[in-house]
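Hi C.,

You asked whether I'd gotten around to modeling the 232-residue construct. I have! Everything is below, sequence then structure, no commentary in between.
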Amino acid sequence: MAVLLRWWLTGSLVAGLTACAQGGQLTPLGATLMGGGSGEDLPAQAETLPYATLVAETQGNQALLVMAHRTGEQGRDTYWQAGDRATLHLRDGVPASTAGFEALLLGRWHSAEARPGHYRVHAQWRDADGTVWQDEAEASLRCEAAEPVALPLTRLALERCTERLDWKSRSTHSQGVYWREPGSLRIWGGDMALWPDGPRLRWQVARPWWSEAEDTGRDDGQSPLPDGAPPP
């Protein structure tokens, strides 16, 4: 199964899913994810699967996503798929793009800012009508002391990190929240708008894709949230 998924992803991920989205046959983001029906026990489903999984929620829909592919330096890029091949791409545990939905996150990335404690977030997206938009925001990240957080398959002491984004073109601001593990600074979940005034995505790691053997040892203060962002 893993071999087939990797072959499909490397061969036709963007072309196939973009074609589906352009056809207008897919429901809004989240409605095509695995599960989502009333009364479904997603943590119980995750418990039975031997694969890395996420529990995701958006626009009133909950679903279980399975990791289909991992690539990039130190495996920083992960791709999570639904039953109909709709895909969520995480980079360092944070949403970077989507495919197979009516409205698409084409890319979300970060750059360093000269002022300490600040960085920039860049976003490009395509709405359901096919119009492509882009914007950038001045961002700041503040983290609180770790407290116990209930996750789908475990309970961990995690830092609650709040990201404030002041978007330039739209003269608006948004706020996202990440839950990260002290020391390794791995992201275990989040709640954020995918773009300015866009749909919010909430996700939690059910079964992680990393292992202790590959711990990045980021207790030096370098956060994976985002590239170039200063420690809180």
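If it helps when you're writing up: The CA atoms of residues 147 and 157 lie 5 Å apart.

Thanks,
B.
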